[in-house]
């Protein structure tokens, strides 16, 4: 099982993490507009709701509904450093 876990971690590092590290510098310029279905979902939430965006990237969803308390987290420092601290 340990060998399988190591292979999985290696695969993830090569095909997920390395890709995001490579695109992080231009991520915000190509992914700036919220997807309509996600935007609609967030706008339908009740005032005071709490949302968590794991893998938030540039934080484009954090300010969609100012009545929802949103927390964003991302593994890639560059993408989150471009997120607005007031989002």
UniProtKB/TrEMBL annotation:
| Domain of life of the source | Eukaryota
Determine if Glycoprotein is one of this entry's keywords.
no
- InterPro entries per record: AlkB_tRNA_MeTrf/Diox, SAM-dependent_MTases_sf
GO BP: any one term? tRNA wobble uridine modification
Record GO terms (molecular function): tRNA (5-carboxymethyluridine(34)-5-O)-methyltransferase activity; tRNA binding
Which key words tag this protein in UniProt? Methyltransferase, Transferase
What cellular component terms from Gene Ontology apply here? cytoplasm; nucleus
PANTHER family cross-referenced by the UniProt entry = ALKYLATED DNA REPAIR PROTEIN ALKB HOMOLOG 8 (PTHR13069)
Name of the protein this chain belongs to: Predicted protein
Tell me which species this is from.
Answer: Leptosphaeria maculans (strain JN3 / isolate v23.1.3 / race Av1-4-5-6-7-8) (Blackleg fungus)
Q: What is the lineage of its organism?
A: Eukaryota, Fungi, Dikarya, Ascomycota, Pezizomycotina
